[in-house]
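Lab notes, practical 5.
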Amino acid sequence: MNREQKQELVSELHGLFGEVSTVVVAHYSGLTVADLESLRKQMRAVGASFRVTKNRLTRIALEGTKFDGLSSLLTGPTGMAVSADPVAAAKAMVEFAKTNPKLIILGGVMDGNALDVDGVKALASLPSLDELRAKLVGMLQTPATRVATVLSQPGAGVARVLSAYATKGEAA
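Output from the prediction step:
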């Protein structure tokens, strides 16, 4: 890479770090190209991405961002998973690491808060933003359904009583 290409990469990464909320760093040594493609595919499926960049250039791009604490993790063959959803990148990395022990999660940062390996795993166990939205909508709809059922029950009860009196009157 020449100097201009390096500057473009640094500015591109700096812009990326301004758009995302979570970055997870891992060592990928020993993974095949097919494994990395599989990881990238899983990342894309959840709205995240996985990048391998030069550590020195990444450290420069991290300066002045909320992910500045990641600089100490950037040693050796590292890759970064990034996502706007706070949970997506961590969840995809942890799921992939379960089946591929050569991917070693080092840590991460979520909205300026540093995470160790256990923190990334805990973050991955949380429901995603879409799952939380679905649960919230379900919780909001359930009371409305219950209210409608309760309100319709007295009317149905009155109708049954009137029907019983009507059939009693006909029988007499």
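Observations recorded by the TA: The longest helix spans residues 129-171. The chain is about 60% helix and 15% strand.
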